[in-house]
Predict the 3D structure of the following.
Amino acid sequence: MEHLTVPEERVGLELDEFLCLALPHVNKGFLRAQVRAGRVLIDGAPMLKPGHRLRWNEVISIDIDDEELPVAPVAPPSPVPILFEDERVLVVDKPAGLAVEPERWRRDAACLSGALLQAALERADAEAARGAELEFRPRLVHRIDKDTSGAVLVAKDLDTERRLRTAFEDGQIHKEYLALVEGEHPLEDGEHEVIDATIGADARRTGRMLVGLPDGKPSRTRVQVEQRFEGYTLLRCNPLTGRTHQIRVHLSWAGFPLVIDPTYGRRETLKLSEIKRGYKAKRGAEERPLMARLTLHAAAIAWPAEDGQLTRVEAPLPADFTRLLRQLSKVRPHRRWRS
């Protein structure tokens, strides 16, 4: 059994929040369940309320076997770049291929939450003392798809997490995505349109969403043209609601699927030979894809601070996306035909 004394700086903190800082490798849901099961004592007596406000010098006793602890989220080999940080929030630049949370069937795979936790532990100088208390525990307030790159907003404390979640629900947080799609979009430069179509889960295929189902939720995506190519368009998209796969589903339904999207489009990769006329492969060399993940990037996010002022942070376009756009500009430049 482990015993912890509440220091003055933790007075007033909720019990489950204190436990999250003291046991950083353990998820909050598990800790709350242990409290309700009577396995966390305060001054020798079970405390069954995770929201109990702590008092100075209370002694918290934790009776949890190490064998029962859930697998901690795994950090990737390289740190995730931080685009912005203040006392309340972080914005990180998630690479494509990294899941936000531990994957259900791949708990040993690296994820963004593992990267954030590792960074927080290093700040607390916890490398030599697993389980040392954190200054803060990173809190993801939204998600982007595993194969989407770009900006993810992270809260550094419970109050900020609650405030940002409310801001999301009230439509006060603005997200911008760059989406490379098939087809030449008819919108004029400077114009925009809003795709307004309900989205619901496909009962026949797990993980896939559909437009127009009877039980679908209202969903709206604002779209405008960012750059044109022959046969392709780079769109700037603003999801006005927050449904699963919203941009991918709406664009596909509107007839402009992502160039690479194995679920809602027709490709898993894109090679130069598919877009360059007269392409000649090098003898004996296997052609590598220009890009091998969703052609979708979370380019910017803006949120209201406590004083109401809007803060906006941009995420740079990653190398694979930049390379693909450069090639399209060379081999598929847009031309306006005149009669």
The chain has a mean pLDDT of 89.
